[in-house]
Amino acid sequence: DAGVTQSPTHLIKTRGQQVTLRCSPKSGHDTVSWYQQALGQGPQFIFQYYEEEERQRGNFPDRFSGHQFPNYSSELNVNALLLGDSALYLCASSPPRHYGYTFGSGTRLTVV
Amino acid sequence: AQTVTQSQPEMSVQEAETVTLSCTYDTSESDYYLFWYKQPPSRQMILVIRQEAYKQQNATENRFSVNFQKAAKSFSLKISDSQLGDAAMYFCACLKQGSQGNLIFGKGTKLSVKP
Predict the structure, then answer these.
(1) Architecture in CATH for domain A5-111
(2) What is the 3-state secondary structure (H, E, C) of chain A?
(3) Torsions phi, psi of A23, nearest 5?
(4) Which of A68, A71, B2, B61 is the most buried (most CB within 10 A)?
(5) Per-residue pLDDT tens for A26-54?
(6) What's residue B19's pLDDT?
(7) What domains can you pick out in chain B, each with its CATH number?
(8) Given CB atoms, is B43 within the 8 Å cutoff of chain A?
């Protein structure tokens, strides 16, 4: 049973560019949450998607947007990249009406 | 706002010994969940143990147990019979009931296990 799958594993982008990160949730999970983990810090909540809608959002600017598809997979988009957006981006999925979060291995984004 | 504090940036333990990682949290909520996650170099966050705040009994998962002190807002993790594979970053996290995925994490404790 595949867990949470994220792609790509590593990415290098230039300031001002746009990036899309992808996440496939664990089988049976319908909710996807995204987190940003800066070096040496704990993850910070970006937003959560359920039934193809953003259900809750953390303290991140509108440059961060997302999408959830009918098969529950999700994308995280970041526009106008800043150097400070360099981080590990983690996706977590959870089953219906349950607080069990399964994380993927993340996408390491480097902005130069 | 909820906050989670892990006051030990690094800890070290001898293989087969016991170690306790500290975590305090601050929340005004009455219903919430507490978690310990392990993050090895592979980067994936792995759930170690989970505690519902309304349960007085401390959670236990094999060699891992917690000491949950609700009044003191303390949630420490005890690892017994430490193994080399336990070496990793450990993060404490809090989630208020009804919060849609907004896990609040501490800054983590790096655990080293000496053979």
Answers:
(1) Sandwich (2.60)
(2) CCCCEEECCEEEECCCCCEEEEEECCCCCCEEEEEEECCCCCCEEEEEEECCEEEEECCCCCCEEEEECCCCCEEEEECCCCHHHCEEEEEEEECCCCCCCEECCCEEEEEC
(3) -145, 130
(4) A68
(5) 999 999 999 999 999 999 999 999 999 99
(6) 98
(7) 3-114 (2.60.40.10)
(8) yes
Q: B115 pLDDT exceeds 70?
A: yes
Q: Do A55 and B45 touch (CB under 8 A)?
A: no
Can you give the residue ranges of every domain in chain A?
Answer: 5-111
Contact B114, B47 (CB under 8 A): no
Amino acid occupying residue A29: H
> Quick check: B105 contacting A, CB < 8 Å?
yes
Could you identify the residue written with the tokens 């040496």? Answer: A40
Residue A77: both structure tokens together: 């988009």
Question: pLDDT by residue (tens digit) across B54-79?
Answer: 988 999 999 999 999 999 999 999 99
For residue B9, give the chain A residue with the closest CA. Answer: A40
